[in-house]
């Protein structure tokens, strides 16, 4: 029996992985975490044999979490990712596996079969060295792409516009598109929110819900609802509200911005 932990800040994504694991007779889920920092402490207390780890998390990314794991108790890692094939090339040459969102049962079973073969043939293999090499490749590729894309193409009405990513205040999912808000203007681009998030990596983007990113460079006012969710007003006047699932990660982000007491 292979003990499994799942780390993803989206409840639906955790549920999808958990349900797939439950259909495999040799996988036993011993932990499921939406908070990556709590997950890191749990992994240190009780290292699993297999770790499903989302790459894109707000308070601590999957790559950052993986770097903090103990090399002596390092589990087999499956990165659950929405990265495109440009970045996935790095996985193809590594012993660290990946699961591309969205996935179905067939893709999950194929990935688990590869993990089983690697687990059985792991003797003498430098698992930590392979992970370190992979993280360096992914982070290098991420930097190159972010630096090479200071502008994005989006449309408004019947015209296409080149937008400076530093000027975009809010990014919201809108079916098969994302809506980009600059002041009182809004534009649409055919993209998922996760793809847009990668394009805006050089900006201080904060995910406040499953469907909304806010460029914290443009936030002018913050308040809270009676339930405790955060209301953010950006420079152009647009108001957005955090969801319950992201309340804690938003709070932690804002705490870091406070001035230290004298």
Keywords:
262 residues, alpha/beta, Rossmann fold, OB fold (Dihydrolipoamide Acetyltransferase, E2P), 2 domains, five-stranded antiparallel β-sheet, 8 helices, 31% strand, globular
Please, how many helices? 8
CATH class descriptor name of the largest domain: Alpha Beta
The name CATH uses for the topology of the largest domain is Rossmann fold
* Strand proportion: 25-35%
CATH superfamily of the largest domain: Response regulator
> What is the global morphology?
globular
Number of strands: 15
Low-confidence stretches: none
Q: What summary fits the major beta sheet?
A: 5 strands, parallel
| Average predicted confidence as pLDDT | 84
Structural class by sheet pairing and helices? alpha/beta
What fraction, in percent, of the residue positions are helical? 25-40%
- For the biggest β-sheet, the strand order reads 2-1-3-4-5
- In the CATH hierarchy, the architecture of the largest domain is 3-Layer(aba) Sandwich
List the helices and strands in order.
Answer: EHEHEHEHEHHEEEEEHEEEEEH
* Cα distance spanning the termini: 54 Å
